[in-house]
Amino acid sequence: xxxxxxxxxxxxxxxxxxxxxxxxxxxxxxxxxxxxxxxxxxxxxxxxxxxxxxxxxxxxxxxxxxxxxxxxxxxxxxxxxxxxxxxxxxxxxxxxxxxxxxxxxxxxxxxxxxxxxxxxxxxxxxxxxxxxxxxxxxx
Length: 139
What we know:
By secondary structure, the protein is an alpha+beta fold. The protein has one domain (34-136). It is built from 3 helices and 6 strands. A 6-stranded antiparallel β-sheet has the order 4-3-2-1-5-6, with helices on one face. It is elongated and about 85 Å long.
């Protein structure tokens, strides 16, 4: 009986040591960095409309000079230039598999709009031609 218990103990010990060696040899999962997303978005159109008439709009087409963004807060309307809009697009770490809630949260952060809005309408065309439409009208 003692030999059986000892044999089982040794077998268990060898098996657990072997699994630790296998874990060390396994390659870690690839973590995507911001650089992996830079060329993911080919086109982006964003419109946010607030109850009081304020709007946030953005239009981006990769490589096109006619890129624009503006905030219309009824008191102070401003635009940003092409380079600034491209920098904002590069901050987005989304792809076609990103959950809608995450896409909207990133858009709110990057395009600097918040509060309670009536309508959010976001169209993105990804590098592979996939077109996605994100919208809310219940905020």
